[in-house]
Design goal:
By secondary structure, the chain is an alpha/beta fold. 36% of the residues lie in helices and 17% in strands. Helix 1 crosses helix 4. The longest helix is centred in the N-terminal third of the chain and has 17 residues.
């Protein structure tokens, strides 16, 4: 049975989509990334309660494969796409979100260096590595860092797309429980 659906892996958090699965998934994706010459991943998530738990587990899996990981915390999915597309800092992106699914659910999807969803072939390669045990130790382990700079770069890129001023416009922004709750108001205030 394939883990990946049309948009990553989704399911009820802490059951089908467990921290154990997230660790194994991160390790498998990390192994595939290293085999392709990559070494760094950026992770973002939405506001779901399980996001931090799954993000920590996913990062641990990447680190156990020797892949450095940068966590942006809560950001909209396009922030991760932007971060992997721009420059050479990140070789892959991971998003922990289940978009419109019920709040107890969550999901994990990967983005390639082009900022797009991974190919079916790459997802199959990740699944094939799911049972591989970690072989990296000592100074070869990946590092986990928190860094908001890629989110700031995305915010500035978005600001460049807007008109210089919004005088005369009446805007309503409902960020509710969305991942843009921090960036959207800051963008519009600029």
């Amino acid at each position: 049975m394939s883990l990946f659906g049309t948009d990553g892996i989704r399911g009820l958090a802490n059951t089908r989509l467990s921290p154990d699965l997230a660790v194994r998934l991160g390790r498998a994706a990390g192994i595939c990334l290293v085999l392709q010459g990559g070494s760094s991943v950026v992770i973002g998530r939405d506001t779901r309660r399980s996001g931090g738990m799954l993000g920590a587990a996913l990062a641990a899996g990447f680190n156990s494969a020797g892949v450095d990981t940068v966590s942006l915390g809560v950001v909209p999915t396009p922030t991760i796409s932007h971060a992997v597309r721009i420059g050479d800092r990140f070789d892959m992106g991971a998003v922990i979100s289940a978009s419109h699914n019920p709040a107890p659910d969550n999901g994990i999807k990967f983005l390639g260096h082009d900022g797009r969803k991974l190919t079916d072939e790459m997802e199959a390669a990740i699944e094939a590595e799911m049972t591989t045990e970690p072989s990296v130790t000592g100074s070869s382990l990946g590092l986990l860092k928190q860094d908001r700079e890629p989110a700031e770069a995305y915010l500035q890129w978005l600001a460049g797309l807007l008109p210089e001023r919004l005088d005369g416009f009446k805007l309503a922004v409902d960020c509710a429980n969305g991942a843009a709750y921090e960036l959207a108001p800051r963008l519009l205030q600029q």
